[in-house]
Amino acid sequence: MKKILFILMLSVLLVGAIFMIYLKSNPPLVIQSYTSKQGNEPVKIIALENTGLREIKLKQILVNEQRSNSAKLIISKAEPFEAETKLEGNDQLSFHNLAQRMIVPRRYINQQAIGEQPQHYAVQVQASNNQKVTIYYEYLKIPFTLTVELQANK
Fold first, then answer.
1. How many Å apart are CA 38 and CA 46, to the nearest integer?
2. Among candidate residues 80, 56, 35, 51, the one with its CA nearest the CA of residue 135
3. What is the DSSP letter of 58?
4. Tally of helices (H runs) and strands (E runs) in the chain
């Protein structure tokens, strides 16, 4: 009986370790693109996508290793975030504090509900060209980090 219990516990630990290695090597949050805010070059819009199975909770954003207090999560109910996207006066966009809303997995977004449900996610940060932005987030209660180097003219 003890041998069966030992084998069962070892199997559970092995499966858990393999799952953690898989998650860490295939993080669920990816950057689709980034652009500057129209008319305000230092403000960057970084479009995000959740490729996982569960929601992602943003925790903190650092710009050049400095905490960004002005960072916002932007949720679009219609258009993706591109260079021409108008942020001010757009009733399809909403701005939130980082931990206020979750990023829903892409596979659960209803493409037919444009204008009614969130379709695209992005973060807005204050960063001039050639800056390093680090996003700390939580997925399945496991902490993750995503880093992007912002280049000039992007």
1. 14
2. 56
3. E
4. 1, 9
CB atoms within 10 A of CB 120: 21
Which tokens is 29 given? 């949050």
Which residues touch 5 (CB under 8 Å, ≥6 apart)?
A: none
β-pair partners for 15: none
Q: Exposed, middle or buried: residue 122 (CB in 10 Å: 0-12, 13-18, 19+)?
A: buried
Whole-angstrom distance, CA of residue 75 vs CA of residue 121: 5
Q: List per-residue pLDDT tens for the chain, 154 residues long.
A: 888 999 999 999 999 999 889 888 899 999 988 887 776 677 888 999 999 999 999 999 998 888 888 899 999 887 777 666 666 777 778 889 988 999 999 888 877 777 778 888 999 988 766 688 999 999 999 999 999 988 765 4
Q: Under a CB-based contact definition with an 8 Å cutoff, are residues 49 and 122 in contact?
A: no
Q: Alpha helices of the chain — where are they, by DSSP H?
A: 2-25
